[in-house]
Design goal:
It is a single chain. The strands form six sheets. A four-stranded antiparallel sheet has the order 6-7-8-9, with no helix packed on it. The protein has a three-stranded antiparallel sheet with strand order 5-4-10, with helices on one face. Strands 12-13-14 form a three-stranded antiparallel sheet, with no helix packed on it. It is extended. Helix 2 crosses helix 3, helix 3 packs across helix 6 and helix 7 packs antiparallel against helix 9. It contains 15 helices and 16 strands. By secondary structure, it is α+β, with helices and mostly antiparallel strands.
């Protein structure tokens, strides 16, 4: 979008100028024009323009801490999913769960590049969507036949030297509904190679689409690039001004109105002391006597600054930067950036001054934002799960379950964030008592599977009861675990 100040008079009809019912559609010379030609969402950011935005976004993430937090910090807040088989075949679920975890925990098994495991792959997807707009995960195979993933960055999805046409644009092949059918991947970024094409069914494309007509989504930092660049330049200029003031430090000033004024460079350096006299070295190498000069060593050792003539005084150069107006201006820019991401400013850069209710409301907003981001992430995670389990059953590495719906699973996100665990836990216990919550809900919020946790609790109680019986505790389980004294457990169970 380009803002241009309108000048002169308009040739538009008077009825258009004066009688439009919608003010946003009214033309006026008192406001700049908005030039936004492409109404097709798929043509807003393409080709070289996309690469320019991508370069700027990455530069900011490499050089600015706030931009880096908006990418890495928010990706970490989104977190990752843990998937577990949940078919009606309980025995197969245990076998499949063990098989699945063996396939995803180690980067050497999960990633063809041996850099990411399943959890860090999900964080990498979120990071790429925030910074670059999209990322492609190719589904490949190891020598053993086991599936592995291989990530391709947004800059590698490119048309290369291939001619763009209807159905192929910006490195993406698509159908009449703009559903992706394939991708062109390049290793050189100067348009000199055609690249390699892979089918959409052999990859997982990840990005945050804002419109179904988009071919590729925009980087999430697109709205923030210019503001972040301005903030960086303002900060750099302020720091440079502060450092330059430190080079001067002290200056000599004269109060008499008819006297010759002195500038900031009253002391000429470098200079050396020779006996009781002081000389300074000029630019051409000659020296001149300067009886009124004071050496740097004398100043730093606090031995005095020499005598002053009548009407003269010393001044100290002090920096008043950054000023309060500059800080407030930067805060207003940061607030716009944060709101553009979809979060209140208190979440992304400053929570100071917010009261308890305000903090809890903003935390609720953050939780909702994370939930929506997880919905997008879940599509990629599920696609990978179906591919791994399906291919492993097809090649005989994993048996088929008795339940024909072998793809049934549960997806457990990371545990919820909280700022007042005691209060929230009390509310959940009350809800549990009246049936508004179940133990499965509580375990899911903590990122755990309820069946596994209940089995673990049963094992702990049974083992504690056996230890109490073996040690001859008269109170049985109540002496060893008072909190579980009312739970059902075999009081006379033998030690295994």
């Amino acid at each position: 979008m380009h803002l241009q100040r309108a000048t002169g008079t308009s040739s538009r009809p008077a009825d258009v100028l004066n009688y439009l019912g919608v003010e946003a559609a009214r033309w006026t010379p008192n406001r700049g024009q908005m030039n936004f030609a492409p109404l097709d969402p798929g043509a807003v950011l393409t080709g070289g323009n996309r690469k320019t935005v991508l370069r700027k976004s990455r530069w900011l993430c490499y050089n600015d801490g706030y931009a880096r937090f908006l990418v890495n910090g928010l990706a970490n807040l989104i977190g990752y999913y843990t998937l577990q088989p949940a078919t009606k075949d309980k025995a197969w679920n245990k076998i499949a769960d063990r098989h699945w975890k063996n396939r995803i925990k180690s980067p050497a098994v999960f990633d063809a590049a041996r850099k990411l495991n399943h959890a860090r792959w999900q964080i990498a997807l979120s990071r790429a969507a925030l910074r670059d707009g999209d990322v492609l995960t190719a589904l490949s195979y190891a020598q053993s036949g086991a599936g592995q993933v291989l990530l391709y960055g947004s800059h590698q999805i490119d048309s290369g030297s291939r001619e763009e046409k209807d159905g192929f644009h910006d490195g993406v092949y698509y159908d009449q509904f703009r559903a992706h059918t394939g991708y062109n991947l390049v290793s050189k970024f100067d348009g000199s190679e055609k690249g390699t094409t892979i089918r959409a069914s052999d990859a997982i494309y990840y990005g945050d689409f804002q419109d179904s007509a988009e071919v590729r989504p925009m980087p999430r930092l697109t709205h923030a690039i210019n503001d972040l660049h301005d903030i960086i330049e303002i900060d750099l200029d302020s720091k440079l001004g502060i450092k330059r003031r430190q080079f001067v430090g002290i200056y000599r000033k004269r109060q008499k109105a008819n006297s010759q004024p002195f500038g900031l460079g009253i002391y000429q350096a470098p200079h050396v002391e020779t006996g009781s006299s002081v000389t300074s070295t000029n630019a051409d190498g000659t020296t001149a006597a300067q009886q009124n000069l004071v050496s740097v060593e004398a100043v730093t050792e606090r031995t005095g600054l020499g005598s002053l003539e009548e009407g003269e005084d010393f001044g100290v150069v002090e920096s008043d930067q950054p000023g309060p107006n500059e800080r407030e201006f930067n805060k207003s820019l940061l607030s716009k950036i944060s709101l553009g991401i979809g979060l209140p400013p208190s979440v992304t850069f400053s929570i100071l001054g917010a009261g308890g209710p305000e903090v809890r409301f903003h935390m609720a907003q953050l939780q909702r934002w994370i939930q929506i981001e997880l919905l997008n992430l879940l599509t990629a995670v599920q696609a990978h799960y179906f591919w791994v389990m399906g291919t492993d059953m097809a090649r005989g590495a994993l048996p088929f379950p008795d339940d024909p719906e072998w793809w049934t699973h549960i997806a457990i996100p990371c545990s919820d964030l909280t700022i007042d665990r005691g209060r929230e836990l009390s509310g959940k216990i009350a809800a549990l008592k009246v049936g508004a919550l179940t133990h499965a809900d509580l375990y899911a919020e903590a990122g755990n599977d309820w069946e596994e946790r209940i089995e673990l609790q049963a094992e702990i109680i049974a083992h504690a009861a056996a230890v109490a019986a073996q040690k001859g505790l008269t109170g049985g389980l109540a002496d060893l675990m008072p909190d579980w004294s009312t739970k059902a457990a075999p009081a006379t169970a033998a030690m295994p």
